[in-house]
Amino acid sequence: LLRDKFREFSRDTGGLGQERVDAANAAAAALIAGGHPERAAVAQWQAGLNEAWAELLELVATRAQELAAAHDLQRFRRDARQVLAQLRDKARQVPEELGRDLRAAEGLERQHRAFEHDVQALSAQVRHGTAVQEAAGRLAAAYAGPRAEELRAQEGAVAAAWAELRGRCQRRRRLLGDTVEQFRFLRAARDLRLWMDGMHLQLQARERPR
């Protein structure tokens, strides 16, 4: 809000002020060119006005830079909080259930792949664009002391939450894969045992040689 208001102030000040300064310079130039007896004083006044105008423009530019920097800082803080909350929320959503049979385990495995796809989309917010790491590096270079430490701490919290979420996803993917393989083995083993039992019954049912 402050930045938007100052943009309007800067635009109005620059436009109106430049017109008035141009008019003053034109009047001074006319007096000097016309050989006015006070042309030396007029030239001195003209130089003073131009110097004051340059100082005012510099102040306006400095204020605009300060507001832009403050805006970037507050946006970073907001983005960092939002991304951190998303990461932690996603981490809480990683279930522990592995399934009681092959069908259930395979279904959970498919669900987890879709979940990881959604999680991967968060990496763009962590690493790129308005991303926390890039913004933290840029802002930390512009600040020093406690504020730079705060920026790095927020970046570190986001990075840690991202690492924890990825770790949980990887562990669950591995456990689900192991569970699915275990159930497939058990199914194959049961099928093989049933086949062997059937063969055994067929052997027992055959006539014995006399």
TrEMBL record:
InterPro entries: Spectrin/alpha-actinin, Spectrin_repeat. It comes from the Eukaryota. The keyword Amino-acid biosynthesis does not apply. Keywords: Actin-binding, Repeat. SMART domains: SPEC. GO terms for molecular function: actin binding. This is SPTN2 protein. It comes from Rhabdornis inornatus.
